[in-house]
Amino acid sequence: MLEAHRFDGKKAGGFAILPRGGDFAVLGVVKDAASLSPWCLAKLAESLPEGTYKLVEGDPGVAMLGWLLAQHRFDDYRSNDEERTPGSRVLLTSEPARIDQFVRLAEATAMVRDLVNTPAGNLGPAEIEDAAREVAKLSAVQLRVTSGKDLVEGYPLIAAVGAAATPERAPRLIELEWGKPDDPRVAIIGKGVCFDSGGLDLKPASGMRLMKKDMGGAAHALALARLIITERLPVRLHLLIPAVENAVSGAAFRPGDIIKSRKGTFVEIDNTDAEGRLILADALTKAVEDKAELIVDFATLTGAARVALGPELPAFFASADDLAAEIEQASRSVEDPIWRMPLWDPYDEYLKSDVADFANSSNTPMAGSITAALFLKKFVPAETKWAHFDTYAWRDSAKAGRPKGGEALGLRAVFAALSRRYPAA
To answer: Is 33 helix (H, G, I), strand (E, B) or coil?
Structure first.
């Protein structure tokens, strides 16, 4: 029967279904049965018939995450019921105390995927605000939204980037606060560009096709906030999401414009397609004003990071070596890969302006992810711990448990690092 299944036991993820009385048994292969990975059972969860399963020996442990996520589907826009989500496949464990942990991680990951996959026509700044309000329902949360005249006066970079959008897609800064005021203050910031046309420096069609995912940083920040609240980490959480659409109209900001940031520095616009760093700059300034001891931002910021590291490896920058080491160690422990890039100060000269304090992008194609990070660094004091993630938030091709489309890349690594730095009681 195994020969008929062409099952030779050599390929990870391979399996065969064998009859056993009125039930059936599954013979499968993982790389190392003594050390299960998050994704080693995901292929089975995608492929097996609906039903209940258990391992013959041991417990699934971290493999429970992949088992859950392999069954996640984004099918809101499928009219054919036959193509919608199939029945569930349940994996039993003798460690029920750990199930909730993996369920929450899976829910947070699914949240990122669903938000990123949603078409830009159905997800603008208002819908990002709605998503934040859903997170706010989890606990006693304060939520503030700054828009209109208050945004123009208080957060001029955010207002400028979103100025060309239609009134129903007007820019805003969404803030959420949770936790005891006396606990360490941690700011989580997410780039919320709901669609990026490039502005007057218009992207080509090929570059615009996936720009519904340019709010992937906001999706990561919302999901991380959800995890912090549900796991009740002892922090004073401050979530900040500048939500805009970088559109084209007579109100669009222009190359050569000079805009005064919330911090008070003047920024010359070299390229309107380098808009993400502008909205993050005002949000970073607000987080610093509120005296966050740690700031983490997520952004689908540069194509240069993808050229350097590819689509599956988020670039991250850290203001301190000890913080970077914490995050790197956490990344390895949960198998959520990231790669540290340098905040190489000599490249700051690429951001020089002849008429303002500095420009928003450089006139060289080299070191693009580094110069973007150096721009953000100008808004964070040296004494503040800060980590910046330049993530793709997308998969160009599917893997077991990880379908093509929106993806959380770096989310579990940061949450693991925060959980170790601020352990729940």
So the answer is: coil
CA dist 96 to 51, 198, 211, 224, Å? 19, 48, 40, 23
pTM score: 0.95
Each residue's pLDDT tens digit, 23-76: 666 767 665 555 688 998 898 888 888 888 888 878 888 999 999 999 999 988
The DSSP letter of residue 399 is B
Is 412 in the active site? no
In the structure encoding, which two tokens stand for residue 77, read together? 């826009």
CATH superfamily of 105-421: Zn peptidases (3.40.630.10)
Distance CA 161, CA 274 (A): 10
Q: At what angle do helices 276-289 and 368-377 cross, to 10 degrees?
A: 30
Q: Residue 60 carries which DSSP code?
A: -
As a whole number of Å, the CA-based R_g of the chain is 23
Q: Can 254 be counted among the known catalytic residues?
A: no
- Which part of the chain is CATH 3.40.630.10? 105-421
Q: Which of 277, 286, 377, 378 is catalytic?
A: 277
For residue 274, report the phi and psi dihedrals to the nearest 5 degrees: -100, 55
Q: Which of 98, 104, 133, 203 is catalytic?
A: 203
